[in-house]
Amino acid sequence: MTEATLPHQNVTFESTEGEAHGYIAVPESGEGPGVIVIQEWWGLTDHMKDVCDRLADQGFVALAPDLYGGSIAHDGEEAVEMMSKLPAEEGARLLLGSVDYLLSRDEVTSSTVGAIGFCMGGGFVLSLAAQARDKVSAAVPFYGVGQGVPDSFKTITAKVQGHYAEQDGFFPVEEARKQEAQIREESGAEVQYFYYDAPHAFHNDENPQGNYREEEANLAWSRAVQFLKDNVS
């Protein structure tokens, strides 16, 4: 991934959970459609900030809310513990506040937002789409797992593009295929899942577990960016 050269900053905003924090990246044009970026179980890491910067490079105003309040996990055991201590309802409410905050910013030209998330964040993408309804027009979960995954997808109105791994030890591909069918059946939304010959977290080039797969990551990213461009306005 390239070094960020775009305007970016840490921000503070109000949510139903009180004062929340995050990282925002704005394109060189100074404006663009809004996208929420939802962190992996590691926290709001440099990699997640880089995802925001890359989206800004594609013309989006990208906001990554900090679901852990500044904490970063350094190994898998710590990440599991931190994820388990984040109540799904609390995370969902904070994300709802981040949608309202992003839409209120002068730089955001869209009337809806997109949402993209990875690992735990991929689960929360689906939760956010289900709760924010027509405020989210495009939902992009990457190998979504964790307590953020909702039981029901009936209230999702966003188009959904999923990116899942065929060698995922956290979320077996068979379960991902069932989820794809469930979203399509319950929501009636347009749903397309892509499956990659790769392990969990294949998109993260800074993953300490070494699961990054460059070819699959680049393909998934190009698909996701085009999907957001087509559906967030």
Explained architecture:
The chain is an alpha/beta fold and 233 residues long. It contains six helices and eight strands, in the order E-E-E-H-E-H-H-E-H-E-E-H-E-H. It has one domain: 3-Layer(aba) Sandwich (Rossmann fold), CATH 3.40.50.1820. Helix 3 (88-104) packs across helix 4 (120-132).
Quick overview:
The protein has 233 residues and is α/β, with parallel strands linked by helices.
| Helix content range | 25-40%
Average predicted local confidence, pLDDT: 92
Total DSSP E strands: 8
- As a whole number of angstroms, the C-alpha radius of gyration is 16 Å
- Helix-strand string: EEEHEHHEHEEHEH
Strand content: 25-35%
**Strand line-up of the largest beta sheet:** 1-2-4-3-5-6-7-8
Report the sheet with the most strands, covering strand number, pairing sense and barrel closure: 8 strands, mixed
CATH topology description = Rossmann fold
Distance, first to last CA: 26 Å
CATH superfamily: Alpha/Beta hydrolase fold, catalytic domain
CATH architecture term: 3-Layer(aba) Sandwich
Any low-confidence stretches, pLDDT <50, length ≥5? 1-5
